[in-house]
Amino acid sequence: MRLLVIEDNRDILANVLDYLQIKGYITDCAEDGLSGLHLAATRHYDLIVLDLMLPAIDGYEVCRRLREDARIDTPIIMLTARDTLDDRLQGFAVGADDYLLKPFALSELAARIEAVLRRAPGGRKRLLAVEDLRYDLDTLQVRRAGKPLKLNPVSLKLLAVLMQKSPAVVRREILEDVLWGDDIPDSDSLRSHIHQLRQVVDKPFSTPLLHTVHGIGFRLAGREAENG
């Protein structure tokens, strides 16, 4: 899973990033509110760790803009040394999912991240299901109609995002960012990987699940959702 950490204290930021990477998360970071807002609005993240006191715009405003303007529902854990009830209530009012006071233990932050991800809808489930397709994120086993499917690591990443967002359309730039970050290869690479995924997930079966939405991206959905 990919996390964004927005924190202006470089010592705290370095410690948090190191710890989360040890825990197996892929991490990006920003040291001010505007940079963090841009990353959160243009890239796919499973969760955002957001400091309250930031240069440019503060964490409240970052959270508010993500929720109200960008319509992004990515879970947000807010970090702050301000511990009054009004501060916490304001954080929840603008859309934060959890609130962690500084100073904090890194193990508690990790536990809160895991708890928020478990509670979040759809994309944070450990067992994904779309129609007769099943993907266990813990074992990396994929089955369709009870039949095991063999997928390469890139196809597994693609499938996870598409199933997590199903039946919504996932923009191609989001999929490219999940796979390659800033180092995106030539324009046909994503199409090639989608073709490989379709050969395994759809070709042996009568009902296609992987659909191309021309000019936008791709969606994984059953016939009823696709027609709807």
Describe this structure as you would to a colleague.
This protein is α/β, with parallel strands linked by helices. The chain folds into 2 domains: 2-119, Rossmann fold; 127-227, Winged helix-like DNA-binding domain superfamily/Winged helix DNA-binding domain (Arc Repressor Mutant, subunit A, Orthogonal Bundle). The chain is built from 9 helices and 12 strands. Strands 2-1-3-4-5 form a 5-stranded parallel sheet, sandwiched between helices. The longest helix has 14 residues, at 106-119.
In spatial order, strands of the major sheet run 2-1-3-4-5
Helical fraction: 40-55%
How many domains, in number, for the residues?
2
- Average pLDDT level: 88
Taking all Cα atoms into account, the compactness measure Rg is 19 Å
Indicate the CATH class of the largest domain.
Alpha Beta
Instruction: Indicate the low-confidence ranges by residue numbers.
Output: none
CATH architecture heading of the largest domain: 3-Layer(aba) Sandwich
Our estimate of the beta-strand percent is 15-25%
Q: What is the H-and-E element order?
A: EHEHEHEHEHEEEEHEHHEEH
CATH superfamily membership of the largest domain:
Response regulator
**Describe the biggest sheet?**
5 strands, parallel
Shape: elongated
